[in-house]
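Supplementary Methods. Inverse-folding protocol.

Structures were first reduced to a discrete structure-token string of length 266. This string, shown here, constituted the complete conditioning input.
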């Protein structure tokens, strides 16, 4: 409820440009608490009873854990579903297309993501093995004040990142209400729509407190299709390879033409 209370206020920011500060704070907190996690792990050292074996004792359990881990990775790296929304806010002209700064931003973002995830994953597994919890901060336990500070940084990070992912949803809902149901676009519409959305997500979150166990499921169900599969579907649609008359050579030729085609920003 405390988390949702923040979003009852932040959700009424109108667009991506207005949440720049929130996004920057979230990114900073992510880098900070991940640094705390791996440095505290190094300080604690390799545990005397550490084990690096599989947590599951059966083949079925190992396969399930493998696919669950893939879902976790898909969830962690699911940023492409908001990339187009972010790029739409960048000024673009024929002389200075938006794809230039957008490409630099994406590279920088993935560098930050790598700095957050890889040290925690590698060092955490080295120090604690298969006994590490869903949150490595729970495994660390001490020093208590540092873990509490890291947990606070996690909360700030999640608050900011939620706004980034929720903004396209807000836009979709308001567009649907205006164009399909013919509501008048105004502040009252935005206030009611976004408040109801935050209240609904708060209700669902209270019903499902074991979020860590759902990461793999959510990653496979929601984030993997929008992040990875959508590009393949778009490519198939552009190349029109669904027709049985297309041969392997013609598909290769079409791919070459698409690669060499100069993409112009609107």
């Amino acid at each position: 409820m405390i988390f949702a209370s923040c979003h009852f206020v932040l959700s009424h920011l109108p667009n991506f440009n207005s949440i720049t500060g929130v996004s920057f704070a979230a990114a900073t907190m992510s880098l900070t608490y991940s640094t705390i996690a791996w440095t505290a792990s190094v300080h604690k050292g390799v545990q005397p009873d550490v084990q690096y074996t599989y947590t599951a004792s059966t083949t079925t359990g190992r396969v399930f854990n493998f696919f669950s881990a893939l879902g976790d990775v898909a969830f962690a790296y699911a940023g492409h579903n908001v990339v187009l929304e972010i790029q739409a806010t960048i000024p673009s002209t024929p002389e200075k297309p938006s794809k230039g700064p957008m490409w630099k931003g994406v590279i920088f973002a993935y560098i930050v993501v790598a700095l957050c995830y890889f040290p925690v994953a590698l060092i955490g597994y080295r120090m604690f093995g298969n006994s590490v919890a869903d949150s490595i901060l729970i495994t660390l336990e001490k020093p208590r004040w540092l873990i509490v500070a890291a947990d606070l940084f996690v909360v700030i990070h999640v608050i900011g990142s939620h706004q980034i992912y929720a903004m396209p949803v807000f836009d979709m809902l308001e567009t649907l209400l205006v164009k399909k149901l013919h509501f008048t676009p105004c502040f009252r519409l935005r206030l009611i729509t976004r408040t109801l959305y935050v209240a609904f997500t708060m209700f669902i979150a209270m019903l499902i407190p074991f979020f860590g166990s759902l990461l793999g499921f959510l990653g496979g169900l929601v984030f993997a299709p929008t992040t990875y599969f959508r590009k393949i579907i778009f490519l198939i649609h552009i190349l029109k390879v669904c027709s049985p008359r297309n041969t392997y050579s013609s598909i290769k030729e079409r791919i070459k033409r698409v690669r060499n085609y100069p993409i112009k920003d609107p």
